[in-house]
Every structure is written in C-alpha cells, then in structure tokens.
Amino acid sequence: MRRREFLLKAAVLCTAIAAPMVGWIRQAEDTSIVRALPGNLYPGPVRPLDKKNVSRPGKWAG
Q1: Claim: this prediction has a pTM higher than 0.90
Q2: Residue 58 to residues 22, 44, 54, 55, 62: CA-CA distances in angstroms?
Q3: Do the Cβ atoms of 39 and 46 come closer than 8 Å?
Q4: Phi and psi of 35, rounded to 5°?
C-alpha cells in the first residue's frame, strides 16, 4: 500500500466515523433546556385567548 492510498483510506475512515458523531452532537444540543420568554419580551401583543379563536383552525392549517 502506497502512502497516498493509506492517506486516502485514513481520510475516508475518519469521515465515516466523524459524520454520525456530528449528527449525535446536534441532536444532543437540541434537547437542551428551552426557556420561555417573559410577556414583555414577546414580539407582538399579548392578549388572552377566547375559546372561539382557539377552536377554529388558523391560516396555516391548509
């Protein structure tokens, strides 16, 4: 085995090992604690929900 072949196979092996690890790290970061924004930092008006508006589907429902 020549040096160039060895380096190519080593690079492929490292990539094959590292690729799933990147996905696992991203998944582990997603499960972190999510904090709610206080009402005064929420973008837009904060108002109580009435039952009529909650029960009908929104614009995004298709």
Answers
A1: no
A2: 36, 17, 9, 9, 8
A3: yes
A4: -105, 140
Length of the chain: 62
In angstroms, how far is the first alpha carbon of the chain from the final one? 60
Q: What is the pLDDT along the chain (62 residues), one digit of tens a residue?
A: 899 999 999 999 999 998 888 888 877 776 666 777 676 766 777 778 788 777 877 777 76
Q: How far apart are CA 44 and CA 37, in angstroms?
A: 12
Residues contacting 9, CB < 8 A, separation 6+: 1
- Distance set, CA 50 to CA 8, 16, 36, 44 (Å): 64, 53, 22, 17
